[in-house]
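Researcher: Let's do a round of design. I'm pasting the structure tokens now; please hold your answer until I've finished.
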């Protein structure tokens, strides 16, 4: 019996559940014609999915940098250095514009809100 590559079956005998991945099925339907427009549409969707995942990953990195800043690790800590190098290019300009309020730095919050807004635009 040949399986459809666009459908994944989960569960055991008598309780099988079929999961259909909608983007894959739409991709299959749109490329079944002879035009190349369907492939371009798929590439654009895939690019948006990858971009959304990168934004999600960067949001986690920003949260990690915030948590690390609370721990007061030594400046030679590798994790702190990597997180600082990844987040400072985005947080630096926000810090220059946004003043500190009562010694609190709200720039990560502003960055996370901006990233969430960008993510919803996709």
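Researcher: That's everything. Go ahead.
Model: Designed sequence:
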């Amino acid at each position: 019996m040949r399986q459809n590559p666009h459908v994944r079956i989960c569960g055991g005998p008598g309780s099988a559940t079929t999961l259909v991945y909608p983007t894959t099925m739409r991709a299959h339907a749109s490329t079944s014609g002879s035009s190349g427009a369907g492939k371009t549409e798929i590439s654009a969707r895939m690019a948006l999915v990858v971009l959304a995942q990168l934004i999600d990953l960067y949001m986690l990195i920003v949260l990690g940098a915030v948590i690390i800043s609370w721990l007061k690790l030594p400046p030679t800590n590798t994790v702190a250095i990597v997180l600082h190098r990844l987040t400072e290019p985005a947080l630096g300009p926000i810090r220059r514009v946004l003043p500190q309020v009562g010694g609190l730095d709200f720039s990560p919050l502003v960055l996370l809100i901006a990233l969430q807004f960008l993510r919803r635009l996709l």
